[in-house]
Design goal:
It is a multi-pass membrane protein. InterPro entries: Marvel (IPR008253), MARVEL-CKLF_proteins (IPR050578). This is CKLF factor. Keywords: Membrane, Signal, Transmembrane, Transmembrane helix. The protein is built from 5 helices and no strands. It has helices at about 1-10, 15-40, 40-45, 50-75, 80-105. Helix 1 (about 1-10) packs antiparallel against helix 5 (about 80-105) and helix 4 (about 50-75) runs antiparallel to helix 5. The chain is elongated, with a radius of gyration of 17 Å. The termini are far apart.
Length: about 120
């Protein structure tokens, strides 16, 4: 929802295309991951470890959002761009929190089995 509002702020304020592109990309990718998990497609498509892909997406999105939203706040051509930049930084914090929570949730040691001896 925050990604969509950020995108709308950038579109309405007629901000630079890079701002709109990053916000739009994050909105679409977030919606696709939400759809993937809601429809339980991650259990059917086992070709990829989806939580790790989600972590990778969150980290890359955080890096892009950091650069773009700082430029939007520094350049602030109008109030819509400034609002989009602030909301984008909020989305950055949410992306980092998502990556940290997913890292805590998954464990690569579970694949070895519960009774495997520690080395």
């Amino acid at each position: 929802l925050v990604a969509l509002v950020t995108l709308l702020c950038f579109v309405v304020s007629e901000a630079h295309e890079a701002y709109v592109a990053v916000a739009g990309m994050e909105t679409v990718i977030t919606f696709l991951f939400l759809l993937l998990y809601l429809l339980r497609l991650d259990t059917r498509m086992r070709c990829l470890f989806w939580p790790l892909a989600d972590i990778f997406n969150s980290v890359i999105a955080a890096l892009f959002l950091l650069v773009v939203c700082l430029f939007a706040i520094i350049m602030r051509t109008n109030k819509g761009t400034l609002a989009g930049g602030v909301l984008g930084l909020t989305l950055l914090v949410l992306s980092i929190a998502d990556a940290v929570l997913l890292c805590k949730k998954i464990s690569l040691d579970k694949a070895r089995g519960g009774r495997a001896p520690a080395r």
